[in-house]
Amino acid sequence: MGAKENRTTGPWFEAFAPPTLSNIGPGYDCFGIAVDGPGDRVRARKSATPGAQLRSIEGDGGKLPREPERNTATVAVSRLIERYAPGAGLELELHKGLPLGSGLGSSGASACAALVAANAALGLDLGAHQLVELAREGERVACGAAHPDNVTPGIVGGIVMIPNLEPLRFVSLPVPKDLWFALYTPGCEVSTKAAREALPARVRLTDTVRHASRLGLLVHALHVGDLQLLGEAIVDEIVEPVRATLIPGYPDAKAAAVEAGAIACSISGAGPTTFAIAGSEERAIVLLEILEEAFTHAGVPGKGRVSQVSEGARLVSRRLH
Ligand code: HSE
Q1: Which residues make up the CATH 3.30.70.890 domain(s) of the chain?
Q2: Distance of CA 280 to the CA centre of its chain
Q3: Nearest C-alpha to atom 8 of ligand 1 is from which residue?
Q4: Ligand 1 atom at minimum distance from 108 CA
Q5: pTM of the predicted model, to two decimals?
Q6: Does domain 3-172 have CATH number 3.40.50.300?
Q7: Dihedrals phi, psi of 102, to nearest 5 degrees
Q8: Which architecture, in CATH terms, is 180-307?
Q9: If you measure from the C-alpha of residue 193 to the centroid of ligand 1, how many angstroms do you get, rounded to a whole number?
Q10: pLDDT tens digits, 94-103
Q11: From the CA atom positions of the chain, what is the Rg in Å?
Q12: To test the ligand 1 pocket, which listed residue (22, 185, 266) has its Cβ within 8 A of the most ligand atoms?
């Protein structure tokens, strides 16, 4: 331990990254929202040993890969060092607050928090676009695709749309007043990789047209702040029907939420987290109870919360020990 501490050359910087919802109906791979709730924390400090070293992971039940080239936090930070600070060394400690395979952007949150902490520890001044590009490298390792729809809101916060993947372009959209989410994560895991592989390689033109129209309506609804229009827009006839089969109880849970007046109800990311939208906190609490009852009845009780749109990853402290 003494030798390790002797090589240490900087103070600890700690960053937090929030959970993120992605897809949001018709926005597969191009739409995401940062929400409040428990997220991931990463501490980083400069080290004399070049590269990114992962000192510890807590909160993952021992499930995450420890090898630097397979963990999203170290992959993202390794790419940061290669591109922007060649020869630099960083030690990282990861504390998982997000459940794995939940649809809440867990792999992306580790990368986002790690990058914000690393950016500060190395005294760099990388902007959101650079950090998002680096965080995508973590997603590539986690599920085989550098999808940006969790890491973009994970870094910039709010509601974002990604109109172009290569080169990456993203835009922040207005957040309607009184937008509340009931988020329920049933007690089962869905592998993002498997849930992506289950999707059709081709879709019919007529389905694509309906999908594109809804995505347009989604953006419009956010701009005019109309939650009923938002509900009309959050319909996904391409991805959701396939993934609904991977989540026990999902069809009944959605039907119950819609019956109870949810503005919309769908799967976040690859699932199993299911979100229902309400126009007030009180209504969101009612929807949360309904989702909980349905998933419990289906044999997959889990955990839920009521959330609103939040900021992206941020530095939470600089510690001098
Ligand atoms: N857009 C991605 C997917 C998000 O649905 O596969 C995964 O978190």
Answers
A1: 180-307
A2: 23
A3: 269
A4: 8
A5: 0.94
A6: no
A7: -105, -15
A8: 2-Layer Sandwich (3.30)
A9: 9
A10: 999 999 999 9
A11: 20
A12: 22
